[in-house]
Amino acid sequence: MSQSDSIYEIHDERFRHLIVASAGLDELYSGCRWAEGPVWFADTQCLIFSDIPNQLMLRWVEGGGVSVFRSPSNFTNGNSRDRQGRLVSCEHGGRRVVRTELDGSIIVLADSYQGKRLNSPNDVVVRSDESVWFTDPTYGILSDYEGYRSEPEQPTRNVYRLDPQSGRLEAVVTDFRQPNGLAFSPDERRLYVADSASSHDVDAPRHIRVFDVVDGRRLINGRVFCEIDNGLPDGFRVDRTGNVWTSAGDGVHCFSPEGQLLGKIRVPQVVANVAFGGTRRNRLFITATKSLYAVYLAVEGI
């Protein structure tokens, strides 16, 4: 198969060792308005993902198709899991971060900072020390399509850390235009955060920044990790060797731990987010506009 016929675009020979050349792109579901927030549940072998404008959270099961997990979803966007296996979600509608308990009840983890409502929490990740880190751009309050139109109460669009013991919420970065996806490196010594502000301003950033994590609490030495050459970075994940797999306008872009573009997986729709899953964690699930896709890789997610 020639590269022109393949779904893969090779920019660095190292990329060949991360992909399965014969593996195709599987469309698992279609019918969303804007698919987002995939998270894998290994214990039940299913994927939960969001369809933000349709106010849905959906569940995909191998051989069983897609069913409704939660409706209405309060315009839920990004999802993650904590160390107890509980679902942690960002709600545009409630302008809050919530956790779904094992009995199905929902508790609020954060909905305000310094006495003012959050903008619209977007994506979330839980560190090994149980701290919850999330981004808070204004996408969910810009219109009534993915939330409820409202004026922001926060003066900046921040990255936050929620302390697991005290419940204290702290803004750890305050200079983003529109912070979006985020993920830790395998050793949790780095935090990657996307800035997707070019969605509404062509001259704004379309890059991923990386920060050094100090004492599990503070971020220092922020710098640009990579630029996206087609579309913008939204959600992304990191594999066990430290490569970053990020959403983009033409598919999924893979960057080395040093920020070098290794290759792309071409996807026929604009990609919003990705998640590793499957029995061996070597299947990359891709939420892309109307559809859920998946492709097998030669590397596993962390």
Task: Explain what the structure shows.
The chain is mainly β. It has strands at 8-10, 26-30, 35-41, 46-51, 56-61, 65-70, 76-81, 87-91, 96-100, 106-110, 112-113, 116-117, 124-126, 132-135, 157-162, 169-176, 179-184, 190-195, 207-214, 218-227, 236-238, 244-247, 251-255, 261-266, 273-277, 283-288, 291-296. It has a 5-stranded antiparallel sheet with strand order 1-24-23-22-21, with no helix packed on it. The protein has a 4-stranded antiparallel sheet with strand order 2-27-26-25, with no helix packed on it. Strand 3 (35-41) and strand 4 form a beta hairpin. The radius of gyration is 18 Å and the shape is globular. 45% of the residues are buried.
Short description:
With 302 residues, the chain is mainly beta. The protein has no helices and 27 strands.
Defining traits:
mainly beta; about 0% helix; four-stranded antiparallel sheet; about 300 residues; five-stranded antiparallel sheet; globular; single chain; 27 strands
